[in-house]
Amino acid sequence: MKLIINEKELVHKALTEGFIHQKTSKTITCLIKYYYSLGMNRQQAREAIEQFMHEHYPHFNSVKWQDTLDRWVKSIEKQEHSLLEIKEVVITRKELEYIRSLNSLVHEKLAFVYLLYSKIFNRMNGNDSYWVNTPRSDIFKDAKVTANSVKQGLLVNDLITIGAIEPTLNTKKLSKRVLFANDQDDAGITVRDFRNFIYFYLEWRGEKIMSCSSCGLLLRQTSNRKKYCGECSKAKQKEWQRKSMKKRREHELVK
Ligand SMILES: [Zn+2]
User: Fold this and answer.
1) What's the gap in Å between 235 CA and the centre of ligand 1?
2) Residue 254, pLDDT score
3) Boundary residue ending a domain (31, 48, 77)
4) Measuring CA to CA, which residue among 56, 55, 32, 54 is closest to residue 44?
5) Nearest-angstrom CA–CA distance, 90 and 182
């Protein structure tokens, strides 16, 4: 998922590791929010962000950045200063039943992702409107549905035709609104890990899903011997090679 749903974590990583997310503006604006939340005034927040940039932004050019930073510090001063922290999203049983009733895996997956995004956007915007404002390609990526642009358009159109989502009247925007949300019901799936989150749905639907024994990433259980995700499995292999090499060397020394 490309959306940043945990601004607190982003700020924490920036302050402790000097980490700047590839969406640089997001890191900076979150930091400014954080400085204000500490009770700093505009001048103090401006100095603090200047300091951070000097320390962590590669080849920081104070003059080039001056206007942008001034503008952000000024506009954020008037805004809400609490940082977004979404740890879980609940999909209810009624919502799952609706999705399953579409009876087509591709459409079900897309509907599930649209619904999850709509709940995240509700939290970001502080409302219950279920509008999703993200590029279509992000939805398809998270749904793990491969389709070219034409096919994507057709599939989204299907969801509109059956009344699962509706488009905005503003043709310049890509927003879609989810129409089948039903929060007033028992939890069916609670998503707490947003990597590969479509697998929560596939598991609910009966597919064999497992989690990596090392990092917890959800994966398809393609064999009973599979224990790790690709990355962890590579890391484990390297570790094993290192250890066996060391053993061999020690053995040779004894001889
Ligand atoms: Zn892993």
Assistant:
1) 9
2) 67
3) 77
4) 32
5) 11
Q: How far is the CA of 212 from the centre of ligand 1 (A)?
A: 5
- How far away, in angstroms, is 249 Cα from ligand 1 center? 30
Q: Are 142 and 118 in contact (CB under 8 A)?
A: no
Quick one: what percent of the chain has pLDDT higher than 70? 99
Task: Count up the domains in the chain and report the number.
Answer: 2
Measured in Å, residue 244 CA sits from the centre of ligand 1 at 22
pLDDT tens for 202-229 read 999 999 999 999 999 999 999 988 999 9
- Contact between 178 and 164 under an 8 Å Cβ cutoff? The reply is yes
Give the chain's count of helices (H) and strands (E): 10, 7
Same structural domain, 120 and 167: yes
Distance 218 CA to ligand 1 centre (A): 9
How confident is the model over 50-77, as pLDDT tens digits? Answer: 999 999 999 999 999 999 999 999 999 9
Token pair recorded at residue 119:
């709940």
Amino acid at 195: R
Whether residues 97 and 200 share a domain: the answer is yes
pLDDT, one tens digit per residue, over 111-151 is 999 999 999 999 988 899 999 999 999 999 999 999 999 99
Residues 70 and 124 in one domain: no
Residue 116 CA to ligand 1 centre (angstroms): 23
Say what the pTM is.
Answer: 0.83
Strands 89-92 and 131-132: unpaired
- State what percent of residues in the chain have pLDDT above 90: 80
